[in-house]
Amino acid sequence: MSMYEHVSVFLSFVYAMGVTRILESVTELVNARERVKWSGLHLAWMLAIAVSLFVNWFDLFKLHDVSYWPLHMVLLLFAQGIAQYFACSFVAVKVGEDGPIDMPALYEHQRELFLSAAIVISVIAVIRVWTGSATANAELLTVGPLIVVGGILARLVALFARSRVVQWAAVVVQLTLIIGYLVHYWTT
Length: 188
Hints:
Blueprint: H1 3-31, E1 36-37, H2 40-59, H3 71-91, E2 101-102, H4 103-130, H5 143-160, H6 164-187
Parallel strand pairs: 1-2
Helix pairs in contact: 1-2, 1-3, 2-3, 2-6, 3-4, 4-5, 5-6
């Protein structure tokens, strides 16, 4: 087994556990819909974190031709996978057997946690590019890393803004950037 296979299989398991947390949460929310006070903002961040997980999993393919795997590269990928799992866990809604589910209150309670984890994911991605461990250094100032930096800024705005309108704008920007990244990746 090559190092790429070793790393990608491990990260695929971690990503599968993260997306499972979100999917279970959505299923439980829908099943308990009569007891749920919905938050579109929280749902939008659940979607953004799930789509960013897909992008990070999909980005693993870029590494399949890497022949030299320094320790820092493996550690950064490991840390990014763990941060991705925590972002998914923190944004997921735990639904109890009975009682109301107040998603707006949960959003306020969990926002710092899932946004911080999401920021860590992107910071690690930028570090991987800057250290030349993700892909060639020629990608340093290309659209991909610039989209990641834009995502960091959107997440920081959502983390510190008090206004719901600004928080909505941040998640819309985040989703737009993620979709833009996917489009960019497929067209290049």
